[in-house]
UniProtKB/TrEMBL annotation:
It holds the Pfam family PH. Signal peptide: none annotated. It comes from Fopius arisanus. InterPro entries: Cytokinesis/Rho-signaling (IPR051364), PH-like_dom_sf (IPR011993), PH_Anillin (IPR037840), PH_domain (IPR001849). Residues 181-305 form the PH domain. This is Actin-binding protein anillin-like.
Amino acid sequence: MTEWAEVTIENINLSLRERLGRESLSEPMEWFLVVIIEGTNVWGTSLGLRPVGSMLFEFSQFRCIIDHLKPGFNITIEIYSLNLKSKVFCNDEDRSHTLNSTLNRTWTYLSPTKFFRRSERSPKVDPNQKLLSSSFIKSGHLQLGLNDLTLSSPWTLTAAPHDSILRDIIDLNLSCVLHLSASHEGFLNFGEPSGDFISWNRRFCALKGCTLMFWNYPRDQETKPPLKIIDLAQCCSQKISEVDKELCTRSQTVVLEVPRSREPGDVDSLLVQCKQTHTVQRYLLSYDNKKELIDWSSKLNNVLSTLRNWNVSSMKSIRISPAAASHQTEILRQLGSV
């Protein structure tokens, strides 16, 4: 099984300080640039000029998608600014003077013979020459990790200069999609409540991502919706292992516990456990032999471990890649067209 996440950053907005808005074209020009860094990868917005008569600078056309992330990812967002004096032509005479001085310049051209005989030599570099530093000034940065996905805009910038025209906040849209490639399928016995007893039914089970889906036969996957769906992202079981014999005496059987909203008719039973604020629904899965038990338990535990590493159950901002959901949608679409 492989797993990775995809983080999308878009709709970046920078707020300007009050009474520092650019009122006219003759004022000094401030240019802004946003740089996003993750590992060795760097993304940057296009240069933007401080707007006239507005207190908000928008990078509305910029969208950054960072994929193949692991739970320990670290994304840095840096803001840079550049101040330039505005050069405004007073009249058409100034423009024509600049144009004429360019046209009157003497140009020297190489003859065809000399042109083709030029030696392709790299320009000599003076070892004593100093490296030129950038004129851009860092105006704050933001660090984003897994736990920051629970937060919402606006975000606070670190190390923002006090004399900067920018306020120390940044507004952006941040979303995350988790991709799971887990896949497994086979027949098993599915335990369902039947009064005070458990009714066992033979089912074909398919694991796709973090979703368990059940049919009567394998061929039903292409023509019928699942008889039952269990979302492992909602599962509260810490580890999948053989069930306690007090709950079920059947060998090679595991139990999945999934919390749900309380319903008026909920009462405690073998497969229903009523809590103060919710109800825990239990699902029994029985396998034909020890090997199948080990294989399925390993697959399910890997999925649950991955979901815990990404804190999926506690983070509404993390979505699961909709591979299984799209499969169901396609089935329902086909059934509707019949």
